[in-house]
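Below is how a single chain appears once it has passed through the pipeline. First comes the sequence as given, then the structure the pipeline wrote out for it. We keep one example in the README because the format questions we get most often are answered faster by looking than by reading.
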Amino acid sequence: MDTTTESRERAEPARLRAVLVLATSTGGIGAHVRSLAAGLVRSGVAVTVCGPAATEEHFDFAGTGARFRAVEIGVAPRPADRAAARELREACAHAHVVHAHGLRAGLVAGSALGRHRVRRTPLVLTLHNAVLAGGAKGMLTRAMEGRAVRAADVVLGASADLVDRARALGARDARLGPVSAPPLPPAGRDRAAVRTEFAAGDRPLLVAVGRLAPQKAYPVLLDAVGRWKDREPVPLLVVAGDGPLRDELQARIDAESLPVRLLGHRTDVADLLGAADVVVLPSRWEARALVAQEALRTGVPLVATAVGGVPELVGDAAVLVSYDDAEAFAGAVTDLLGDADRRTFLSEAGPAQAGTWPDENETIAQVLSIYEELGPV
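Resulting structure:
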């Protein structure tokens, strides 16, 4: 931390100073931290965001009015975590509260603040994801999860099952902390223009949005596609997102001649949703999936798996099926495509259900009240 910044922080004793910490992110966690940083800055909080430089390039936290400090926290444990903890300890030297987002950030923040706290700085941890790995890796990750949870003064779970998990692991204070999807920017193109991009013609257009990673269960979705690829007209599935499974998924799409297009990272999700007949979410687990929130807000029918926090999020405003059941997923999609009345019902029920969720301002107000509870008022 430069001496000018340090002097300014020392000169602002009455102003709440919060450090937000995250690991590498290109999706929901980064979007939430950016939204939170912007809202806290508007509320008069002095915010510093600590995370990888690449994550700053993706989300522009500094553009919210927050300070940004590069702390290289990767997606997996590594020897460099010790250096990251030292960097983070320095960045948090004058913080009133530190708020880590995700297990990796929580572990590094706990290490940075732990035994070195002369003036004990409160630590808040938001859990955004469940531990899904099995075998030795899963055992190790669950052990680290317990360590991170017990190091925090308050644990916020993005869904009720994460709150229950934190309590079972020994959290001293675990609460529900819903993660609200930031509003999408207005669509830049109309439905016809988007469909023309994909040469969709009169075919049903299905949209999936999310990282190409195991949690999202895209292989199961491809199994479902194989069950409807002979339907006339055959639905076209487009998938917005990138990730480690891209080559594997593309190879299968090519080998089986599946009507699927992998679009990579997109900045026009609002356009895609506006052109979609149905949004699909086949995940193994989700808390409050951003795309589910975006689909319901937009009034696009959603077919999703009944996992994690999805049922409590969508209520009766989406079609839910069991995870890892490609036949049931395919049947739900094709039944919905063949039932215009049902699609109309869901298009109206989605925005109504979205109206029951905490919005960004309520989310920020909850977090700010926790900061003030733990730090100076």
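The CA atoms of residues 230 and 259 lie 10 Å apart.

See the next section for the split statistics.
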